[in-house]
Specification:
40% helix, 15 helices, binds pyridoxal-5'-phosphate
Length: 368
Amino acid sequence: MTAGMTAGMGDGATEGIRALSWRGVIEEYREFLPVTASTPVISLLEGGTPLLEAPRLSARVGARVLLKIEGANPTGSFKDRGMTMAISKAVEDGAKAVVCASTGNTSASAAAFSARAGLTCAVLIPEGHIALGKLAQALIHGAKVLQLRGNFDQALDIVRALGEQAPVTVVNSVNPYRIEGQKSGAFEVVDQLGDAPDVHCIPVGNAGNITAYWKGYLEFKEAGRSTRLPRMLGFQAAGAAPIVAGHVIEHPETVATAIRIGNPASWYGATSAASESGGGIAAVTDDEILEAYRFLATEESVFCEPASAASVAGLLKTGLPDGLGPGSTVVCVLTGHGLKDPDIAISQISVPTVVDADLGAVLHELQL
Ligand SMILES: *Cc1c(COP(=O)(O)O)cnc(C)c1O
């Protein structure tokens, strides 16, 4: 170990490297999180993600729309916000191993933070329904990856049982520290805008994130850091919309694999966020999701994954809630990076034409 490097991992900031300003979710919002001075902070400097104006989307919707770019997190999704908390608390509690069920991003994040903390990480993923980039992440960070012949909901049932029978900490969003960390997304939106937005749009899968954002908005208002609360609009994929249907979906299906969930763990959290805020939960079809996905890439230059685009698809479909007009502000969370699922992107466009290595041939094809 180099002289001057600290032994433990207690400090999110590294000595000798000047942090520009951002210190990671736990250090930035310590007073709102269940940590103490002795909690070992395991951080990859997650959070602090951009809130980007979306001029063309704003024109289509008739209000000011901003995009919270969660793909800018260290492992490319918002899952890092919860994972810094879950892994820090696991280390504090003396855990040696963690386990999760995942549609992909939870495993990528758990694997990265576990490697940082020196913990063993085991993940259960549904066979054949995980985006390539996410699988690559879990593997390269050294997780023990098992592909389950079953779906996410079955994987989560097994993981919960494992948590009871083996000496491992479950780091799915049933772990309350995950929600605690994820509420920092709402804190950032308020800090970036100066107040809460009028409307907050978010994809809903296992429903941990909508639960967390609502908790964050409530806590900031309570603390006097904002003066109002947004209406929470959650969007499920039509083929995986248990909350909209009002019952568990046995065989959820959607192109948006990150929200391919038929029995959300935080079901009640999602319905309370929607009802307490005067918002709602609605469904968007795969076609609507993919239209929003292409629109974001071509018109706003943001490449997100299909599940993320559900928030924008929903906003485009339902429009502004009653009583809101052009002066209102809408935030859509884009939960994960598009590079995680390159197969979907390529399936949405035609494959590049092959030409001879000849200027004339190139000019002819490009028609500039
Ligand atoms: C996990 C995830 C979701 C769904 O979030 P929940 O908390 O399960 O509702 C949406 N989009 C992406 C990219 C995700 O990784």
